[in-house]
Design brief:
about 0% strand, mainly alpha
Amino acid sequence: MAPLLVFGVFIVLIVIGVPIGIALGTAGIGAIVTFDLGIPMISRNFEANIAKFPLIAIPFFILAGTLMEKARIVDGISRFIMLITGRRRGGLAIAGVITCIFWGAVSGSGPATAAALGLVFITPMIKQGYNKYFAAATIAAGAGLSIIIPPSIAFIVYGNLTNVSVGALFLGGIIPGILVGIFLILMVYIISRKYDFRGSAESGTPKEIFKAFLESFWALLAPVIILGSIYAGIATPTESAIMGVFYALFVGIFVYKTITFDVIYKTLVETVVGSAVVMFVVSMAGIFSWAASTLGVIDAAANLVSSLTTSKLVFMLLTMIVMLIAGMFLDAISITYVFMPIIMPALTALGIDPLYFGVCLVIALAIGQITPPVAVNLYVTANLIKSNINDEMVRFVLPMVLVAVLALAVVVLIPDLSLLLPVMSRLYTP
């Protein structure tokens, strides 16, 4: 009865289109009331789930990324990369993915990156003869790198839930994130050759490229300050996020002079709304997990998962398949809160490193952001071209999903790709 109520109600609500946070909260609170687990536990869990220091980094990273977008910091780096790729076949699309890799080191949100870079790249790509659906699919796929390459909201949530160092997770995501980016670039190039999509209208001379590099200096410095402060042991992820906010304000006000009081006000409003959505999902997912755990549903599911196989590799592959499927319907935060309490006991029993698993998990969640039907990044870029997610857009995005899955398989098969940098930096001991 308990499993049927907790998970059954949740699944039914998702199927009929109820927002994920409300679905989680309804199922969790419904279980608490029905089985008399104590109504006061609802408010206690609501507060306990979000009153955690590591989670403070989320609104500050959202604010820093939004301020840098408003400051037009991305314009300098995108111009620099466009001049390098020049007239090469697929050059603009490749420049878009490379810029997504860079912007991933500034913004921890896939949809935010899709919105920011979509405005920069999609229109020029269409003007140069690129299929508009290909342009939208390319930026959507590249934007998924934002939750793999640090800073990442997904890593913050995972680290908070599993007690794995967020700084170590950030380091662990660098090599796999770049690897996924390389796979995407190769696929973008292959598609561009097939459809004869050209590069930009201009190819930069060495002098122009150097000038663009100097103009992009402030953009290139942003990830150095944000991530370098963490890896150097100067700041925690939360403190580095605050540093990113002040850096964005400094550059936007005094260097580019694009940030006004009106912009700051609108940015704060966007940050509050975005943070509220994230924190609401976190709190509701926590209530859902607590109710399921108290009723013994989590333990029963964990025992079932642990009994499936004794092979680490088989378990990883099966779990990643489940995560890829879940990513088609749920957001990254909800998946982490719903599934990790079930999976963690199995990870411990099989001796699977939680940092390595976390990196693989986040890659799978990033792929979910471009996998229909619930593909948030695709919805953002589709809106930019004033379209819906249709068959033609899906035709272009599926090859990108395929290569991203291949990259995920490589990361699963080679754990050192995730563990090398955290271990070398001594931020993490397996």
